[in-house]
Amino acid sequence: MTGALLPESVRARFHLPPGAVYLKSHSVGCQPRAAEALFSDRLLAPWRETGEAWPHWLDAIDQWRAALAGLIGVEARDLCPATNVSAALSRYISALGQATDRRTILLAPSAFSTIGYVASGLAAAGWTTRYLPDVADVRDPAHWQAALDDDVALVIAMHVSSNSGALTDVAAIAAAARAGGARCIADCAQSVGVVPVTPGAWDVDAVLGTSVKWLCGGPGAAWLWVASHDRTALDPMERGWWSHENPFEMNISDFRYAPDARRWWGGTPDVAPFILSMAGIEEIAAIGIDAVRAHNEALQAMLRDILEPRTPQWRWPTGTIGGTLCIDTGADQPRVAEALDRHHLRADFRGTILRMSFHAYSRAEDVEKTAAGLA
Question: Could you tell me if 7 and 53 lie in one domain?
Fold first, then answer.
């Protein structure tokens, strides 16, 4: 597996916390060294030199859309910037409510909590939230199919589950949803940047994502991708002047939706997060998603080979997983937490589940230090 490892030079392209092994890319990816100059050149310099910098800033966001589109193999016009995943999902559902009489949202209890909060918060608007059984394997399309009925409008699938690392066959779940007359949206917050994200191949209706984790872009630069068949078929109720076909027309009595995914954009956008996000997207694209994935898998395998035989009391993940090793340490959790602190290993917990992530900037030495500290 060592042949799959990336060269040491990749690590030098990121800022890493000194004196620590960083294993939390599932939370916040490390800052690309190119980010500071990009921020200065594309946000501060035009503002300083022109005062009215909107043309430069809008061009920067268009460049961001194009770069992200290239990374996940979609058309830039089908991508809408968003402040966060919650906002993107809320706006998507606001549009979906106008297109169907169905009012049930189906998701797994292991979905990221914000997804459940958004869905359950729509009860006053007539929406019902339904969860798969706790014991259901989210990777098995049959469990999703069994939960579908004539009132399910939307299936929300986690491409990678944040609490278990389970990697879902989104295409299979989308096919089950479609057969049941529902749409399917995939949350790729825990996958984009480390696992190939391919909306076109999945045949999903929409995809949610963020830049704060594996794309190493910081918070505030999330996104909503909407399939071309819904590009003009869905009209979001939540809208603002940047949802307009021509935001600068300024006719208060004449609103026309933008002809692309910008119709979900809303009010005045924040520019800075997308400029910072661009640095991360460019770095990940230059390395290559397949290369990042192979590097991640090689380091995961190295750690398991060393540590798993020494920890028979832990529950290690089974089946296909994404970029994060989620290990249930059970009664060992307090000891493991203390060992993380003592050996400067930056990982985290969900209850007793230890979450550790290797990114492009991780190396074999990090595996050795981690195994030695936790064994």
Answer: no
What pTM does this model have?
0.94
Domain count, the chain: 2
Long-range contact pairs involving 125-134 (C-beta distance under 8 Å, separation at least 24): 125/97, 127/93, 127/97, 127/103, 128/103, 128/104, 129/104, 129/105, 130/104, 130/105, 130/106, 131/106, 131/107, 132/106, 132/107, 132/108, 134/109
Domain containing 323 equals 2-23+288-374
- The residue among 264, 257, 178, 253 whose CA lies nearest residue 222 is 264
Residue 359 has which token pair? Answer: 């990114």
Q: Per residue of the chain (375 residues), what is the pLDDT tens digit?
A: 556 999 999 999 999 999 999 999 999 999 999 999 999 999 999 999 999 899 999 999 999 999 999 999 999 999 999 999 999 999 999 999 889 999 999 999 999 999 999 999 999 999 999 999 999 999 999 999 999 999 999 999 999 999 999 999 999 999 999 999 999 999 999 999 999 999 999 999 999 999 999 999 999 999 999 999 998 899 999 899 999 999 999 999 999 999 999 999 999 999 999 999 999 999 999 999 999 999 999 999 999 999 999 999 999 999 999 999 999 999 999 999 999 999 999 999 999 999 999 999 999 999 999 999 998
Question: Is 121 in the same domain as 211?
Answer: yes
Are residue 233 and residue 176 in the same domain, yes or no? yes
User: Of 261, 253, 338, whose CA–CA distance to 81 is shortest?
Assistant: 261
